[in-house]
């Protein structure tokens, strides 16, 4: 069966065997929020936005269909996803209306990121596109530019990304919208993030766990997330799980998660239904927050969730060539794929677009007064112009680490020392720094951050950590930690993600998607810097005394190395003082993906705090104390990159001095991996002259003969080979690694 067989459009789920009594736990509300004028304005806004979204997929000219559509009016290649657009427009229109009515401080996070036409259409209507992209003025010329340029070079892509005003979530990979939303509201008590979760996305593992994230939200100190599950029933070619669940099953599911579910599914009165439901949800949020902020928190509050049932591709053509379109998977992308070449499809396209009556809602290519009436009057309230989404970064107060360094020549756990420092960071930044960890802080010997209640855990369902202002989120889901970290970071704060080395790879693709967002943000003129995404990787492969092979995998280093050079930073500090210096630097840095790798076990402190500071600034240095004659005129260079492997290098150098005293050995430690690439390949890459000074020249130009270089590397050798490629004299290099 190549695709889903359908006996009817928008097929209902089979009834379940759950007792009807479960339905008493779903919420019913009176549908009387909107006045007749508001209702008319919302419907007109929806018609205008639906029209623009559909036109973006198909048209390159005749953008207001003021004459019959000709083949030349249609784009050569039709790209975009229509199926989710009507639902997204519906949500956007009602969020606008409630913001206008209540001055709600809100962001919109869109899980179905492939619905970019819907969001771009709404942004154009509220004049947020023109604010950041002047060519998309709110007039005929700007509208034509938007429609004509969608999904072609120079225009907006088919997925939401950093070029989309108001967005804090890369729209390509599904599963992370909910956790990003929860991270965004932390420490922002007045912010409500409306998060649309598609029913396809709802099938993903990360989304399934993220429903628990509200259990880490203290309503006294943080804002709230209003999840809207958009159940339109279909993915690309098959029905969704949620679409095959009846109201009893979905009620049981969300009540079990701890939510109050409200179904929005009365299609004939969908606007009153959704408006009343959103107002109820906002009232519930305010009730929970008021109780917490008055000192009488509700224990285990049941937060609202809206379950929105609308047909897939709502308002498009009903059928084509005997197949259902609206209410089926065939509306997921382009409902009329041959409109350019098939006169019958072109005629249907004309009728479809004209059904929105663009001359009424977009007279002469501009929104009508009725459409504009539900858009917030103040720019700062518009969803596309929220500073939380593009200009909210505030640097944190990082204590002077050097005052907390440890004595040279002792044995110290890097993580224990760093844990004490991070405890200071949390106290210095009680509303702008958090640690997101998959239940590994104690194991990773970072438990000093848990010593004080106001810097410890923030698990609201545990009486021991409830309402204590803790800065630590521990949940055994790397995906949820990553999503929360992204939302927290992109809305202006700073976070840290400590993890076992072997399991950071779980969030590899999430990290890549985030880096794409930041890359595109750099290419805009209006997105301001954000804090860096900071990973602290320990419990490394080199010291797995009681776990073994299953816990040995340093591959996340390679994942970060594959990012754009402007973003990627990888550090392998060799001792506790170097790690302190590195952590302090990364917490101050902006717009990077920082990976710090080190040991949790006690290891030698090779450098004093002052020496460590100089070493980390340089990125690498000759360790004279471990070299022959301070490393002058070496016959061989031994390079350590990582904690335990550096210990091996120093031991090997000592052994060589004993066994082969005539061999002159230079020991080099590299703490900043990015210095090793060819000159110009990375902002940190050493100039050729500095490379030669550190690792020696090729032996021909200076007449001193070939000097071999041996790298003892913490990660996989293939990573280092790729990084070094392009340097001269690599035939004298050997590498050992994990």
From TrEMBL:
Its cofactor is thiamine diphosphate. Pfam families: XFP, XFP_C, XFP_N. Keywords: Lyase, Thiamine pyrophosphate. InterPro entries: THDP-binding (IPR029061), Transketo_C/PFOR_II (IPR009014), Xul5P/Fru6P_PKetolase (IPR005593), Xul5P/Fru6P_PKetolase_C (IPR018969), Xul5P/Fru6P_PKetolase_CS (IPR019790), Xul5P/Fru6P_PKetolase_N (IPR018970), Xul5P/Fru6P_PKetolase_ThDP_BS (IPR019789). Residues 600-737 form the Xylulose 5-phosphate/Fructose 6-phosphate phosphoketolase C-terminal domain. Residues 35-392 form the Xylulose 5-phosphate/Fructose 6-phosphate phosphoketolase N-terminal domain. Belongs to the XFP family. This is Phosphoketolase. It comes from Somion occarium. The lineage of its organism: Eukaryota, Fungi, Dikarya, Basidiomycota, Agaricomycotina.
């Amino acid at each position: 069966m190549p695709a889903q067989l359908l006996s009817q459009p928008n097929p209902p789920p089979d009834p379940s065997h759950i007792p009807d009594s479960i339905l008493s736990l779903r919420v019913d509300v009176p549908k009387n929020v909107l006045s007749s004028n508001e209702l008319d304005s919302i419907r007109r806004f929806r018609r205008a936005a639906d029209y623009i979204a559909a036109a973006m997929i198909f048209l390159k000219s005749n953008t207001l269909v003021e004459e019959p559509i000709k083949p030349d009016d249609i784009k050569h290649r039709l790209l975009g996803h229509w199926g989710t657009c009507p639902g997204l427009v519906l949500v956007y229109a009602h969020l606008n209306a409630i913001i206008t009515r209540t001055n709600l401080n809100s962001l919109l996070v869109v899980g179905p990121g492939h619905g970019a036409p819907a969001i771009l259409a709404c942004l154009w209507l509220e004049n947020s596109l023109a604010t950041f992209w002047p060519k998309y003025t709110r007039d005929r010329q700007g509208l034509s530019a938007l429609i004509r340029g969608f999904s072609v070079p120079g225009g907006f892509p088919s997925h939401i990304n950093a070029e989309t005003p108001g967005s804090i979530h890369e729209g390509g990979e599904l599963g992370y919208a909910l956790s990003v939303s929860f991270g965004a509201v932390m420490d922002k008590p007045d912010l409500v993030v409306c998060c649309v979760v598609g029913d396809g996305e709802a099938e993903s593992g990360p989304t399934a766990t993220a429903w628990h994230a509200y259990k880490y939200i203290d309503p006294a100190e943080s804002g709230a997330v209003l999840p809207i599950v958009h159940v339109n029933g279909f993915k690309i070619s098959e029905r969704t799980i949620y679409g095959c669940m009846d109201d009893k099953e979905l009620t049981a599911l969300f009540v079990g998660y701890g939510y109050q579910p409200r179904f929005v599914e009365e299609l004939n009165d969908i606007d009153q239904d959704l408006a009343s439901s959103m107002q109820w949800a906002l009232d519930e949020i305010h009730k929970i927050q008021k109780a917490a902020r008055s000192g009488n928190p509700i224990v285990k509050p049941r937060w609202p969730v809206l379950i929105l049932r609308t047909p897939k591709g709502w308002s498009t053509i009903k059928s084509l060539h005997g197949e259902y379109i609206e209410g089926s998977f065939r509306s997921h992308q382009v409902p009329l794929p041959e409109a350019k070449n098939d006169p019958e499809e072109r005629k249907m396209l004309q009728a479809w677009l004209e059904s929105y009556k663009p001359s009424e809602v977009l007279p002469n290519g501009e929104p009508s007064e009725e459409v504009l009436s539900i858009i917030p009057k103040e720019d700062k309230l518009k969803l596309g112009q929220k500073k939380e989404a593009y200009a909210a970064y505030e640097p944190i107060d990082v204590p002077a680490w050097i005052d907390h360094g440890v004595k040279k020549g002792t044995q110290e756990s890097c993580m224990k020392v760093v844990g004490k420092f991070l405890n200071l960071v949390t106290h210095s930044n009680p509303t702008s720094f958090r640690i997101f960890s998959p239940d590994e802080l104690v194991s990773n010997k970072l438990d000093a951050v848990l010593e004080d209640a106001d810097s410890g855990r923030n698990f609201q369902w545990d009486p021991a950590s409830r309402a204590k202002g803790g800065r630590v989120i521990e949940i055994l889901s790397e995906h949820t930690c990553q999503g929360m970290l992204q939302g927290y970071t992109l809305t202006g704060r700073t976070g840290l993600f400590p993890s076992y080395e072997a399991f950071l790879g779980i969030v590899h693709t999430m990290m890549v998607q985030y880096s794409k967002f930041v890359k595109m943000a750099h290419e805009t003129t209006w997105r301001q810097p954000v804090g860096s995404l900071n990973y602290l990787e320990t419990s490394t492969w080199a010291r797995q005394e009681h776990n073994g092979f299953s816990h040995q995998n340093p591959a996340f280093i390679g994942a970060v190395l594959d990012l754009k050079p402007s973003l990627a930073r990888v550090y392998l500090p060799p001792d506790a003082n170097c790690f302190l210096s590195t952590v302090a630097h990364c917490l101050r840095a902006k717009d990077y993906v920082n990976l710090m790798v080190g040991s949790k076990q006690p290891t030698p402190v090779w450098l004093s705090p002052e020496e460590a500071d100089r070493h980390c600034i340089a990125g690498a240095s000759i360790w004279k104390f471990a070299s022959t004659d301070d490393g002058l005129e070496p016959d061989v260079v031994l390079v350590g990159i990582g904690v335990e492997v550096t210990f091996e290098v120093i031991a090997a150098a000592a052994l060589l001095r004993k066994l082969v005293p005539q061999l002159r050995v230079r020991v080099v430690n590299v703490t900043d991996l990015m210095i090793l690439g060819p000159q110009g390949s990375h902002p940190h890459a050493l100039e050729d002259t500095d490379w030669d000074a550190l690792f020696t020249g090729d032996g021909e130009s200076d007449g001193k003969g070939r000097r071999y270089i041996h790298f003892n590397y913490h990660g996989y050798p293939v990573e280092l080979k790729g990084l070094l490629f392009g340097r001269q004299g690599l035939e004298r290099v050997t590498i050992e690694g994990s």
